[in-house]
Design goal:
Blueprint (H helix, E strand, L loop, with lengths): L1 H13 L3 H68 L5 H21 L4 H27 L7 H5 L1 H81 L13 H55 L1 H18 L5 H29 L8 E4 H11 L1 H7 L2 E4 L4 E4 L1 H17 L8 E9 L2 E8 L31 H11 L4 E3 L7 E7 L14 H8 L3
Helix pairs in contact: 2-3, 2-4, 2-6, 3-4, 4-6, 7-9, 8-9, 10-12, 12-13
Length: about 525
């Protein structure tokens, strides 16, 4: 039975939480301290009561009894002297003794209130004194002065016997008072000894409780928390395989178990994340190679298509000049189609070649005054500006670290589009603004043209995406895609403002100093030179 009961108690205590341990510990400590406090208060009260009884009752009662005896002796001396001499001066001690007797008797009656034995002794003294006074003292004191009192000699034996009775009664009273005082002293001494032991016990129990509280906190709270913190720091340092030990009360063990569960889950997620990262790295490497190959293919294809396309264009134009008008109308139309297709193909290949070069070649980052770049761009677009009566204004533009050639291409495409897509009945009005926005510069190009519908705000930046036919507006559909590539190369973003309804507003950001990065798929200079020399 005992062997089974101990594990049960152990399991019961092991299920206690820190809060329960603290509650039980505080309750036990308060109970013990309360009991000790009550005991100490009782002992102090008992000591004070005994001391007060000794000081204010027993000792004064004994001393008053001695004073009463002295007053009675004064009476006896005065009566005896007056009776033998008849001199009235001897009555003064007697009269004074009577007064003192009355005072001391009243004082003893008050001091011995509740003490039946003491009051009996006092009554015996009073009775003995009354007998002596009745037999001798009052008759002698009443006799006339001037001659010895005859009654003194006659009642000498009776008077002596009566006063011996007074002495006997007062002696018995004093003996009892001495015994009572001695018992009070013994009780006070014993109580003071008990008081001292009680306070020693209180001090020892308080010290023991303090030690138990600190030891309990150390074993049940601080040590498990320190161990948990140590394990957590080891894990935080990178050793995720380090287990967390579960010690202390139930709630701390539960906390340790939950943290360890979180650690194991984190280990699994980190392993999964590492695998995912390795797969992403592999996919990123494959994608980078694919992008490099695609860009190199675009460059090579556009470069290698230049020569045969020039031949096609030259011969179709030569055919148009030599045989134009000599064939029927349908043949002339076919020749016009061929010449137009060759020219558009030439333009498309040139634009594709320019797009492939963004961020790949000619990316010489330097201080670029965007005001100057914009002025050169507007000068290049002067014919279009004059033909459309365009009004172009701009805020002061900053100086950035950028590729000047690409900045020129950016301004040319944006302002060129703003001029090209103007309303037929209105002259183009274009405003370029710039403002600092945190670590970036935000630019806006606003016009009063035909605008871009919100559903096409993302589509216009995709290569070869056109919102109008080539007959309505010329172009290859690469301009805004090139702008996006230039802006992203310089650490910014570009978008159409969907809230602007009076035309088109394109906003983009540029970093003051973009991180230099080589263009993916860069074609080596030797390779380009070799290809350009090939027929």
């Amino acid at each position: 039975m005992t062997g089974d009961q101990r594990p049960l108690n152990t399991r019961r205590f092991s299920a206690w939480t820190t809060r329960r341990w603290l509650r039980v510990g505080v309750a036990v400590s308060l109970t013990v301290l309360t009991l000790l406090g009550v005991t100490g208060a009782w002992v102090l009260g008992r000591t004070a009561s005994l001391s007060d009884h000794l000081v204010n009752v027993r000792s004064p009662a004994l001393s008053t009894s001695f004073r009463l005896e002295s007053a009675l002796l004064n009476q006896e001396t005065g009566i005896r002297g007056y009776g033998l001499t008849g001199v009235s001066d001897f009555l003064a001690p007697y009269q004074r003794g009577l007064s003192d007797q009355s005072t001391y008797t009243a004082s003893l009656t008050e001091l011995l209130h509740g003490d039946a034995a003491g009051l009996r002794d006092l009554k015996a003294v009073q009775d003995a004194v009354e007998t002596w006074q009745k037999q001798l003292a009052r008759p002698v004191a009443a006799a006339p002065a001037g001659a010895p009192v005859q009654l003194t000699a006659e009642r000498a034996a009776a008077g002596k016997e009566a006063f011996d009775g007074v002495r006997t009664a007062i002696s018995a009273q004093q003996d009892r008072l001495r015994q009572d005082r001695a018992r009070a002293v013994e009780d006070l001494s014993a109580t003071m000894t008990l008081r001292n032991w009680v306070f020693i016990a209180i001090a020892l129990v308080t010290a023991a409780l303090t030690v138990l509280v600190f030891e309990g906190l150390r074993r049940g709270v601080t040590t498990p928390l320190d161990r948990l913190g140590s394990d957590a720091r080891i894990i935080a340092a990178g050793d995720f395989d380090h287990p967390i030990a579960s010690t202390g009360p139930a709630d701390l063990r539960q906390l340790s178990g939950e943290i360890d569960f979180m650690r194991r889950r984190l280990v699994r997620e980190l392993a999964f994340a590492e695998q995912a990262r390795l797969r992403l790295d592999a996919q990123a490497a494959d994608l980078q190679c694919s992008n490099a190959e695609l860009e190199q293919f675009a460059y090579v294809a556009s470069h290698d298509l230049q020569e045969p396309l020039r031949k096609v264009s030259s011969f179709t134009q030569l055919l148009q000049r030599r045989y134009g008008g000599q064939l029927d109308a349908r043949a002339d139309q076919y020749i016009d189609f061929a010449v137009d297709g060759a020219n558009r193909m030439q333009t498309l290949i040139n634009d594709l070649l320019a797009l492939s070069r963004v961020g790949r070649v000619n990316h010489q980052l330097q201080n670029v005054d965007l005001d100057s770049v914009l002025e050169r761009t507007l000068s290049a677009l002067s014919v279009s500006v004059e033909e459309t009566d365009a009004v172009i204004t701009h805020d002061p533009l900053p100086t950035l670290i950028a590729d000047p050639t690409q900045m020129g291409m950016l301004w040319q495409n944006l302002t060129g589009n703003a001029i090209k897509f103007h309303r037929p009945d209105q002259a183009p009005k274009i405003h370029i603004a710039a403002e600092r926005e945190g670590a970036l510069w935000r630019f806006t190009v606003t016009d009063n043209g035909i605008g871009i519908a919100p559903e096409y705000a993302e589509k216009v930046f995709v290569i070869f995406q056109r919102l109008h036919t080539k007959d309505a507006y010329s172009g290859s559909g690469i301009g805004l895609a090139m702008c996006k590539k230039i802006v992203e190369f310089h650490g910014g973003t570009i978008a159409v403002d969907p809230d602007y309804r009076d035309g088109t507003r394109i906003t983009f950001t540029l970093a003051p100093e973009p991180a230099q990065r080589p263009g993916p798929g860069t074609v080596p200079e030797a390779t380009r030179a070799e290809r350009e020399t090939q027929p």
